[in-house]
Specification:
This is tRNA dimethylallyltransferase. Belongs to the IPP transferase family. One of its GO terms (molecular function) is ATP binding. It is a single chain. With about 325 residues, this protein is of the alpha/beta class. It folds into 2 domains: about 240 residues, P-loop containing nucleotide triphosphate hydrolases (Rossmann fold), CATH 3.40.50; about 60 residues, Histone, subunit A (Orthogonal Bundle), CATH 1.10.20.140. Helices cover about 50% and strands about 10% of the residues. It is built from 13 helices and 6 strands. Strands 3-2-4-1-5-6 form a 6-stranded parallel beta sheet, with helices on both faces.
């Protein structure tokens, strides 16, 4: 039986160094990069999303007023991966949107399409009653989903209520009905996670990167989006970390200093959520780095060799191994 093609997934929290490592890997492993990032899909979200110059698939594929979902990503990524393999190259999926990774690797059930009118009604209701009240409603109709969704995670909470109100079937039940063949049965999977071992290092990188984005014109980028007809704070693109906080400033809801502070805090919270996902991720090899970006000894690994090397690229290559022949 022919060997399954190699598929590499490189994950990690924001500002952990994923993109730089992916570019290095692409240079020596004949890879094409596939972005797994819910902000990079949108055109016009460049500075605040740290959009890379190096070519990635699934970047700049939607306008910000055209919402993109995990289900959309799963379909697009399967097509892109098949095209890359057909060209005789190795797909390397890199990013931090963990729901997108799960949708591609494990599949998502077909469920009701988004209904803008229903979603808007939920947003209006939330403004009047508060998201915790809507979370309590979800707990009554879908306790499984409510247990996974924080009361302040408005986007996921609204989607769960939207699905239930549209279909009468809880979103958790739709998710249990998935029938997509898992990626592990189709590919030789190598899954890596990169992160500084010291969380203080990650927090300093997040703060420094936000400062650099502001200096590069992030506020002007958001101001341009703010002035476009049809864009509003309820869209997934505008709810992206950093964009949402500067949007509030432009709406006069806070000072610029407060918006920046909130943006940094929200980015740290995003990194924390990403790490929560990653700690539970099966079959994951960890590359833990120091302040200078070098790999530290004793990285947590399920299957990789124990030898620690200073060269991050060489360590990652050791985890990945040769492509199947």
């Amino acid at each position: 039986m022919a060997a399954k093609p190699l598929l590499i997934c490189l994950m990690g929290p924001t500002a952990s160094g994923k993109t730089d490592l992916a570019i290095d890997l692409a240079g020596v492993l004949n890879c094409e990069l596939v972005s797994v990032d819910s902000a990079l899909v949108y055109r016009g979200l460049d500075i605040g999303s740290a959009k890379p110059d190096y070519p990635h698939h699934l970047v700049d594929i939607r306008e910000p007023d055209d919402p993109y979902s995990a289900a959309d990503f799963a379909v697009d990524a399967r097509r892109v991966v098949a095209d890359i393999l057909e060209r005789g190259r190795t797909p390397l999926l890199v990013g931090g949107t963990m729901l997108y990774f799960r949708a591609f690797l494990e599949g998502l059930a077909e469920m009701p399409a988004a209904e803008p009118a229903l979603r808007q009604a939920i947003e209006v209701e939330a403004a009047a009653r508060g998201w915790p009240a809507l979370h309590a409603e979800l707990e009554r109709v879908d306790p499984d989903a409510a247990a996974r969704i924080h009361p302040n995670h408005s986007q996921r909470l609204a989607r769960a209520l939207e699905v239930y109100r549209a279909s009468g079937v809880p979103i958790s039940e739709w998710q249990r009905r998935q029938d997509v063949e898992p990626a592990a049965s189709r590919y030789t999977l190598r899954q890596l996670a990169i992160c500084p071992r010291d969380r203080a290092v990650l927090h300093r990188r997040i703060e420094r990167r936000f400062e650099q984005m502001m200096a590069a014109g992030f506020l002007e980028e958001v101001r341009a989006l703010h002035g476009r007809p049809g864009l509003h704070a309820g869209l997934p693109a505008i709810r992206a970390v950093g964009y949402r906080q500067l949007w509030h400033y432009l709406d006069g809801e806070c000072s610029l200093e407060e918006a920046v502070q909130r943006g940094v805090a929200a980015t740290r919270q995003l990194a924390k959520r990403q790490l929560t996902w990653l700690r539970k991720w099966p079959g994951l090899d960890w590359l833990e780095t120091g302040a200078a970006g070098n790999v530290l000894p004793g990285a947590r690994s399920h299957s990789a060799v124990d030898t620690c090397m200073d060269d991050l690229l060489q360590r990652a290559l050791n985890y990945i191994g040769p492509a199947p022949s």
